[in-house]
Every structure is written in structure tokens, then in C-alpha cells.
Design goal:
Blueprint (H helix, E strand, L loop, with lengths): L7 E9 L3 H12 L4 E4 L43 H14 L4 E2 L4 E7 L2 E6 L2 E10 L6 E2 L13 E4 L13 E5 L3 H12 L4 E4 L9 E2 L2 E2 H11 L26 E2 L5 E2 L2 H6 L3 E3 L2 E5 L2 E4 L3 H14 L1 H11 L23 E2 L6 E6 L3 E2 L18 E2 L2 E2 L4 E3 L13 H17 L2
Parallel strand pairs: 1-2, 1-6, 2-3, 6-23, 8-19, 9-10, 9-19, 10-15
Antiparallel strand pairs: 4-5, 5-6, 7-20, 11-12, 13-14, 16-17, 17-18, 21-22
Length: 421
Amino acid sequence: MSAPAVSRHETNTVVVGAGQAGLATSYWLSQRGVEHRILEQRPALGGAWQDRWDSFYLNTPNFSVSLPGKAYDGPEPDGFIARDATIDFFRRYARDIHAPVELDTTVTRIAPADAGFTLETDRGTWAARNVVLASGAFQRPRTPPAAVGLSPEVLQLHSHDYRNPAQLPQGAVLVVGTGQSGGQITEDLLDAGRAVHLSVSSCPEAPRRYRGQDIFHWIVEVNVHGPEYGINALQVDGLPSPAGRFMCNPLLSGNDGGHSVHLRELGRRGVRLHGRFEGIDDGVLVFTDDLAERLALVEAGFGQRLGRLSDAYIKAAGIDAPAADVPEEDHWLPAEPGARLDLKAEGITSIIWCTGYALDFSMLDLPLLDEWNYPRHTKGVTEHPGLYAVGLPWLTRHISATLVGAGPDAEYVTGHLAARR
């Protein structure tokens, strides 16, 4: 009996991923008259925003909800939109630009071929002259190796799979990590009346508003216009090390009209704070015994980097902005920081790992990745002709993985791609 026929398709360019970067790429490819298809592994449009919890609000203000040809024009530029509204925005945008998306199609292998590339998927094979990697920054949920040593009686979820407190069994909850997900999920659990323990990482706190504007306004300004004034720290060439591409984002929330998240305030509300998670010792969780120093580091981080860059930009650009508010000194510390935690004794039945994501380009059958599994490239143009990347953290600058940052990178990449014809 002969083997079943494998469907084969051809197009000039395949875009892998239909999130914000993939849709922005599709817009520019259409503008340049380049035939293409977008292969999206999810059964529905909406990108990684579909993996956020029920109470999630976008952390960046509405003025940044912008993709090529679709700038925000609503009445609340400094407001924030909920998860489902964010998903709807992407679905409407894909419809408006007539994005040629193939849903429920997972790319399993990308290999070089004589005329470009062969892409194997779970729904057949594609041949393309060009490929654009647009699978985003949230590819593979990452958890510490020690997690496998925990009792199976404790429910473990990555933030990727957390949806709401009712999803968890009765009992206290340990949240590990204080990036944006960790801080916001802790607040979600508190609002539901759950007892929460929180393992503190090194992600910096930040004011939601700074010198008269949402802090993201200044971040965008320094990204886009900083180089005009010699301020290049938020450009990829200004990173002290390639590892800096994976540094934490500021601890902020878009909920309740947008607000800062302060760890000491969470502690005063009843959250039991611990140092960074280190591992497991005879069934007991171990944390660094440096909570006081860690909280001070978290609170100082904004002033040492983003605050300083914002101030330098405001001064260099001659912007008339109000002076920065001086934060009140806060020396609160828990009575018992606790470097060790017995889950059973504390009634902890769930752990939520807010420990970020790892890049996953395992489908690439090409020697193209550096030691951080990041494609080697220049402004999104990789070392292999016809292969491009968009939407990655610090692709060209700090905001490259955001809505407002994906479009300009996609415009540059598609210009290079179109010129190959």
C-alpha cells in the first residue's frame, strides 16, 4: 500500500506566528506586494494574550495599542484595556488588513532548500523563498529544575496556565517571581481572599506615572528619539551584554486604571515575602536570606536606569515636564522573612511559577542560534539569506517586542526582503 500523499504548498514568504509581530509583518508584506502566508499554531487569533489570566489588563497604555495602519484614536489614550478587548483588537486588525492566516498549523521544521526553504508542519509542507520568524517572546514557559522534586500533592502551574483563583484548590498559594506576572497574580489572589506567599526576584519597581506622563510614554520616547540626543542605552547596541536582552520589565499593572505594584505594600496587606527561590532541602523550600537587601535593590532599580534615562531625555530635548516626585522612605520589613518554607506546615497547596519564558527555535534546522537560543541577526536580518526575525526582546531596541515597537522592525525587515526579489 502506498503512503498517503502529503499536501504541499508554495508561496513567496512564510511568516511563522500571527501575533502582533506576524500581523505587522503581513501588513508591510501586503503593502510591498509580496505574496505570503502566516502559519499560526493556535486555533484562534489573539496571540499570547490568550494565555493571560481572566483579570489581566494590558500593562502598556492605550496610546501604545498601535500596529501599522492602525493607531489608537479612542477617547482614553492613557487608559488600559482588558485581556479580551486586546484579543479582539488583534482579530479585527487581522480582518481589516486581510491577513492570509492559516490557523491550527504548527511548524515543526524549517530547513534550507535550493529555492529558499522547506517548512514541515502538522498540516503538510510549505516551500518558500523567504521565512520570517514572528513567534514572539513568550514561546516556552520556564520553571526551575527543582520543581520536579515537589510533592505531587501540591498543584504547580506556570503563569502561562493560570486563569483565576477558583482554578486552585483550597489553601495558601506560593507565587514565585516578582516580574509583572508575579505582582499582578499576587494581587488577583489577594482580591479573592487567598493567603499568599511571594518569592521576590530582582525585577525593579517603577512608578506608573513619572514627571506628568505614564512611564511608558518616556520609555517609548527614549527608544524612538533618544539617539537624536545621544541617549542610546535603550538601543540594542547600548546593552552591556547580550544577556541583557532578557532583563525584567518594570513591576507595573494596567488594572484599576493602571498602578504601581509595591512589594512592601503587598507585605502590609498580608502577603508573606521571601527571598529568591533557591531549591528544595528535604522537602522544605529554601530562599535566599537577603530580603531586606533585595527589597532595597528592587526599589532602587528604576532610579538607577529608566528614571535616569527619562530625566536625561527630558533635559536634552528641552521638555517642560514637572519635577519628579520624591518617594517616601519605606523601611517596612516582615517580622519573620523566612528563608525556609515548609509547604505542608503553612497549608500551601498551590505554587504558581511566574518565572518567565525561554526562546524556542527548535524547529530551525540551521546553525543560527547563539548561546541564549537567540537568532544571530542584524536588525532582524539573520545570517542566512532569506530568513528574518521580528518581535523578539531587544531585536533593535528595548520596545521591539511591544505592540508599538513591532511595526517599525517589521517595516525594515520586509523592505530588505522585498529587495531580494
